Amino acid sequence: MKPKVWEQRKLGDVFEQTSNLVNPKEDEIELWSLTVEDGLTKKSDRYNREFLVKKDDNFKEVRPGDIVYNPMNMTLGAVGYNGMAKSVAVSGYYTTMVAKENYDTYYINTWLKSPQAIRLYRTYATGSLIEKQRVQFPTLSIIPVTFPKYEEQIKIGSYFHSIDNLITLHQRQTDFYKKISFYYISS
């Protein structure tokens, strides 16, 4: 008999919800947002809303290695991973979580944005109107998924990480060549 390589788990077995509340101004932590397109995004890169930050607002800290998602946009793939060496602050409405031991965070983060995962979120989302459906952590926790063993997750996660780095490099090169061509056209 062939050994079982992939195992079924509920996402509640994979993740632990975190809720580290911070005040961005007092704790000197940058305020970030979450987009479907780019994941975690620096707030000032999108629009300046610093004036909306009130002293008593609750924001969540997203520590290095944490995963964050927007419950209202989970069915669209609004998931981010903090791959930076610093913590950032996000809306207190977002859900923050960390992968438990023996789960590769980079593999898991990539899977969370996959078409297969998004179909599952849509199946389990709560709310009567499609545009108002959400996936809170208790709902996410009951979703059954099949994952490879940890060693294979690491290999797959590493592969995706390499691809992401290559895409980033090519994007920087493209941006650089656009600037150069603009300079020569303008001169």
From TrEMBL:
Ranges where the Type I restriction modification DNA specificity domain occurs: 3-173
Domain of life of the native organism: Bacteria
Keywords on record: DNA-binding, Endonuclease, Hydrolase, Nuclease, Restriction system
Coiled-coil segments: none
Pfam families, per database record: Methylase_S
GO molecular function, one term: DNA binding
GO biological process: DNA restriction-modification system
Protein family membership: Belongs to the type-I restriction system S methylase family.
Protein name: Restriction endonuclease subunit S
